[in-house]
Every structure is written in C-alpha cells, then in structure tokens.
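Let's do one together. I've listed all components of the complex below, 966 residues spread over three lines.
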Amino acid sequence: MTTQVAPAAAPGPLGDPGAAAGRRSLTNLRRARDLAGVVPFTSYVLLGLVLPMGAILIGAFRKPVSGSFTLHNLHIASHGIYLHGFATSMELSLIASVVPGILGFLIAYAIFTARRGSVLRRVAITASGVFANFGGVPLAFLFIATLGNTGLATQWLTDIGFNPYNSGFDLYGLGGVALVYMYFQIPIMVLVILPAFEGLRPAWREAAQNMGARSWQYWRYVGVPVLAPSVLGATLLLFGSAFSAYATAEALTSGTIPLTSIQIGSFLNGNVLAGQQDVGFALGLGMVVIIAVVMLVYVCLQRRAARWLR
Amino acid sequence: MTANVTKAAGPPQAPGGARHEAGVRVVISQLTRTFGSLRALDGLSLEMAPGEFVALLGPSGCGKTTALRILAGFETADSGSVTVNGADVSPVPAARRDMGMVFQSYSLFPNMSALDNVGFGLRMRRLPTAERRQRAAELLDMVGLTGHARHYPHQLSGGQQQRVALARALAIEPKVLLLDEPLSALDAKVRLQLREQIRSVQQRLGTTTLFVTHDQEEALSMADRVGVMKDGKLEQIAVPDQLYARPATAFVAEFVGTMNRIPGELSGTGQVRALDTLVPVHGERPADGTGTVDVLVRPEGLKIDAVPGGNGIVTDRAFLGSVSRISVRLSGDVTVKVDHPSAAAGQFAPGESVQISLPGVAPVLVTQRR
Amino acid sequence: MAAVTDAGPASPPARVASAPAARRRRSLPVWRWIILLGAGIYFLIPLYAALRFSGFGTFGQVFSQTGFSDALILSVKLALVTTVLTLVLMVPTTIYVHLRLPRIRPLLESITILPIVIPPVVLILGVLDVSPPSLKGTPYLLALVYVILAMPFAYRSLDAGLRSLDLKTLVDASNSLGAGWPVTLWRVILPNLRTAVLSATVLTVALVLGEFTMASLDQYQTFPVWIVNFDQTSGPVSVAASLFALFVTWIFLLAITMMGGRTARRIGGGQVDLVSVAHQETGDSR
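Okay, and this is what the predicted structure of the assembly comes out as:
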C-alpha cells in the first residue's frame, strides 16, 4: 500500500501543507505498527480479564434460564444473608486492617529507630518478609494446631485456668479468623510502612529542633502529618486484602460464617437455591465495586504521599 | 602550623541601620570531636564579633560541618567550649539555643506551605496566629517570595526553597545564623543570586553568622572573614584579600585561587632561587632541610615576555575577559599559568617561545617539593 | 488482593548519627525490645504448635499419603506452565513498551493493577462462566488464569529491572555493532534482566504453589486443595503437610533471593525483594 503525498505546491512561509499531511499519515502508520507489538498482551488481558468481568457484569443482571435483564439478582445480593455477608466481611476486614495497621506501625517504628545494621533490625526485616509470605491454607492449619479446640496454646491457657473457648473465643468464628489474618497482615504493614519512615528526612527533625520544637511537637506538626497518607493508604490496602481473601477463611471455617467471598464460592459449588443461580454474579460485582473504590482512594493517597516524601 | 588569626574587625556599617540590637559575640575554644577512628575536630578555636559574617572554608572531611553542628547543638564536642556573649551553651539543648539554621537541602516541612514553614519557629514560641502570619509574611517579602506564600515545598524550585529556609531561620530573630552549605545543591546562576540575597539580608539584620562551604568563591565574596580548615584545624582565618595575597600556608595558598608551583633552591639568607631570580621567602620553610623546594606564586605574579629562545613554550591561551590566562611549559616538565591583559596577549600564541620571570621583590611561599 | 508499593524515595546519605539523636535512640530500647519480642513470640508460637501437634513422626508419613504426590506434581506442573507463559507474554511486551512505546507505560501500569482489584474468587466465577467445556476439562485452564494473577508482579519486577538499564542506549549500541534483534535480545537485554526475570519467576511459582481459591472452585486437586481435603482424614497430616509447604516455599524464596543478590551485585540489576514477594502472596492464596 502506498501513501499518496499530495503534489507539492510552491512551499509557502508556513511550509507545505500537502507534505505535512503526508507526514502525518506516515506517523499514524508508524504508530499503528508500533501498537501491533502489544497485541499479544492486550488480547490475553481481554480474554483472561475483560471477558470474565464482562460475564460477571452480564450475569449480575441476567435472569436465569430466560436470560432477560433483571435487577432481581442485585436485590437478593443486597438483602438477607448476602447483606449479612457483606456486613460481616466489612467488619472482618475493618478489624483485620486497623489492628494490624496500628501494630505494624509500632513494629515498624521500633525497627526504624534501631541502629542501622544492628542484628535486631536485620532479623526483624527478614522475618517480616518471611511471615508476610505465609499462605492461606497452611496458615489456617497452623492456627488450628495452636488455638483450635485441641490446640497447643488452648491447652496451655486452660492449664493456667483460662479456657478461651469458655470466654466466647472461637477460632472458627469472626474473631478467630481476624486473628489468623493478622499473621500476614502485620508483616505486610511493616514492610509497606518502613519505607515511609525512611522517607522522613533527618533534616526535618533537626530543623524542627532548631526552631524550638520538642519531640512530641515534631511528631504532631511534621512526623504524623507526613506519614498519615502512607499509613492510611497501607491500612486501605490491608482492608482490600482482607476483604477479598477466601482461602484462609474457607480452610478454617468451611463456610460457617457468612463472608461474601465464601458465599460466592458456594455458588460455584452448586449450593444455590433455584432461581438464584445468577446471584453469585451480583455478589461478585458488588465485591469488585467495593474494592475498586478502596483502591481508588489508596492510589490518591499514594500520590500525595509520594509528593511529600520525595 | 601557625594559624594566622586576624582580630575580628567588627561588622561593616549596616545600611539603613540595624533592625535589631547588635548581634552576639561567639567564642569557640579548642573544640575536639572524634568519630570512632576519625578525628573530625582537632582543637578548633574561633572568635566571631557581633554581627560578623564568618565563612568556614575547606575540603570535605575537614570538620567544618561538624563545628557548625556542635554550635547548633546537634552534636556535642568531646572537649572544648562554645560561649555566646560569654555564656556557655553546651548544656543548652538545640531547641533552646535560639540559633537559626539553614540546611543544605530539602529541610522545609513538606506538609506545610511556605508561610507556615516560615512561621513554624514562631508557633513554637507561642506567638498568636495573626502576629505569626504577619511576621512570616514580612520575612517572605524580605526574600522576595510574597507571591509564593501558599505554595508547598514541592511546588517551589530549589532556589526558592532555600530562600524560604532562610526566611524560616530568620523569623525567630536568632542570636546566630548558621548556614550549612546552603547553595551547594543549586545551579550556578541561582547560586549567585542567592549569595547576594543572603549577604544583604544578613547585613540588614546584623546577625552574627557562620557559613560553611567548600566553594572558595562563595566564601571570599560573601564573608567578612574566612577561615580555611584542614583536618579539623583552622589553617588561617583572615579577611578575603589577606587570605588571597598573604596565605599563611601552602594549603591555604593552593586552596584559595590558583597557584603555580615552580622548582627552586633555598639560599641560606631567607631567600630562594627560582627562574634565575633570588626572591625573599615569606613564612615558614618546609621541615625538610634540603635546599630543593617548590615555590608558590600566583598567575598574576609572573612576568611573561615574547622572546625567541626563552625558557618556555606557550601551550594554551584562555580568554577570561580583561585578562587572559596563558599556559606555558618550562623545562623539566613544569607548566605554569600566567595572567596578562588580553589587549596585549595576542602575541602569545600556542607554540610561541616566551621568557617567564619572577619580579624579585614580593615574598613568595615555599613548600616541600612534590 | 495484593499490595503494590513503589520503591521508596531516594534519601540523601544518612548523616553520622548525632549525639542527641543517639541519646534519643538509646533511651528507647526497653520499649523497642518489648514490642519486637512480643511480635516474635506471636509469630513463632503457631509454628511450634504445629510441630508439636503433628509430631515429628508424621512428617515421614506425609509423603506416602494417598493423593499427596499427585497433588504435588500437579501443582508443580501448573507452576511450570504458568511461569513459562507469563515470561513469554510479559518479557517481550515490557521490553517492547520500554523501547517503542514509552508513553504507554502508565496505561500498562494501570492495566496490571486490574487483577489486584478483582478478587480471585470473582475472577474464577467469570472464567468458569465463559470457558468452553473443553477448557474446563483440563487443569491447565488454571494455568491460563494464573498468568493473569501473576501479571502485576511479573510486570513490576521486569519494569523495575528495565528502568535500571539504559535500554535504548544498549540496543542502539548493539545494533550499530551489527547485531540483529534476536541476538540483541538474547545476548544483550536478557542477561541484564536476569535478576528481574528471576524475581518474576519466584513470584509466579510461589503464587501457583500456594493458590487455593481457584483450584478448589475449579475442582482440581492441587497441593493446597489436597491439604484441605485431607484434613477430613487426618488433621495431623494436614498440619505436617502445611509445615512442609511453608518450609519449601520459604527455602525456595531464600535461596533465590540469595542467588539473585549475588547476580545483582555482579551485573548491577535490581534486587529480588522479599517485599514484592510478600505482595505476591497476598494475591490469592488467602
């Protein structure tokens, strides 16, 4: 295919419009050819991500069997046990993000103030990296061995005279699941927030001192405000992580507590009521929307933090 | 090494009168500080007159920053004392010393606007908000940044940030102003502008100031007196022209301005023979007793004549404005640079034979042969 | 849901610790030790409990249980396929974008954040809905989906590795010396990306070996699925198998990190970072 360049008139002071148009179409051609390089990637993403998501979107509004548009699925997904599921999931995610957030912050601060290169510091950082990697299923079983009905720690505590199960604790209930989540949430918080601490320039602290500020004043006016976006952002991340978690909860509870992710899973296992086959899609849609909102706020906070901690 | 100390001359007359009472007198005496095996300060002593602008000049590692930080209270000396108006400040924590410090870079609080940054010290001193804002605005005006009061540090250029940092340090009406290489991170043009601004503000306020830098041009152009430091000690402290014209040691001579090194022979009577001339020796002779030394002389201290069969060949001629710097290679692989008025420098083209000579009157420094 | 952090901001060289700061730090130690010790105990107890619970004898038994080797082999096969697919897809794409379409990079970055926004549980729901029965009949459907899960982490590793190179200059130099594209790719670019590729591989393998959600819902018995199912038969064996899984992943990560560290020092690439690995795990084994 040849690109026709318009016959050149005598070039005016602004150059030759015909040739310019020719150049533009050449550039477009080149750009199209360049974009061809990312075709494999985009096709894979389309097939593997966009297509399934499209299915979810359609399924959420689809009436089972007949295939017509309906809001029924959404209605069911936002009431009754499914509403309960969303609420419980949010409650769990809140606990499993705020608490590890605070604890992780304190641990990160402890690491940060340790002398550089000291054993304590290196061990703590490596340990965080390792424990952040402990996966859902193995972790669940570890905790069953620890705090299950016949777990080791349960026995220890009973020996001291305090059986946690008698005081309402249940590893297989909400509190227990939250406790297990913390095992990997805390190290993640530490690893995410440590760079933020490192971003606190010593010059700020010294400048504050120089201006007459005492330690608490430095933290109040400079330290905390500067760290706040990162801390908030990290907590949001933990929230999203806890909200979408499935494996740990499933391995622990086998579906006994109403969690949105577990409920979606049961749709795939075939435990559905007739006429409600597509409610799972609505639930999925709801989950994605919630997490998308969380991620959006996170990205904004990240940008603010990056600007300040530059 | 004898430290050539000239008495502080006192501040120059501040135009328009000093805005505050005259500055404080600072006396640093025999400061030592060791970090592990490194001797950062080795008996540093320095006196600053009220309102004086003193620059500490030296290569990195010479201890100048350590001295500044000890004065500010961020470090403590192993021994020695620091007094302000006669009172010992060592027991006073940094937050109470009432000294304003300008750091090298990125010291503005990122979460506050320029105005709030400047007003921070005032907030610590519990000034009521309205007064604080007004004073901060005045200071921003003094450094020419009124329009940027609401901007955040990341929205300001490097030069603007340092001006805000200066305003912030001055807002608290400090007894002493400390500047830790504040211009090093800026580009050349901005540096020049800021130099003038810092100097004029300081003169207006009459604050005793200590300025640390490794850039000799900066030190010489800004300060009332310049102290050259090496290995934790003061080699010489003097007014800029003295430092340039009468360097006390070879180190100072070569650190400040350009110096030529010419081989010479000591001649018993406090003289040295170089370039076939007998010249008096200024200052100490090197410890090495042998007669061979290097003679240090400035480019403008040499005489150059276009002469066939002379003692040197021109290798390069650099136009520097009213003066040109001519590089000449002498026998024995010695290269010297000679300054000559540009109008008459045309005859010294590369390859030309010239005669380099020493006008015999002015005393020169000698040092060990390298 | 994974945490994707950016590399921390470059900070000016740390000043020599000033005396007052040192005093401040020295006055904290008790406080600091209490926190870190407390954390240490919390994290180590479950490991110890698991060891006691399953008993040392059980470890030997684990390998001989029904389904163990099949499940493990399946997981390993899936890990292999996923890794190869991911690398084949992501390496050329990232290199290409860095070279030819640098302006698309932000867009690419946003796309690779997408799998993080979509929980695996939801993704598998959609995938199973649109997949033809032929695909659903093979466990390798999982491998295809795992590529999507691994994408963000692979991209981040490769992107970081590429950013530390001056890619354009290297390629121009190679071309000017007469090398064609395949040679340039193989001898110039890839060797310099060794650490990044290693990092991406580690992340992908760890992801697949630990992935439970999709595998169980797609009803294939990979290793994690086997562990959960076997709990019905024998709790201690499941616990022992869990420890085994953790230990293996762990050793694997550490070994690769150390190898990566050494290579990085020679070649000067990025570091295989346990942090990014951490974010990996939040991906979907939870």
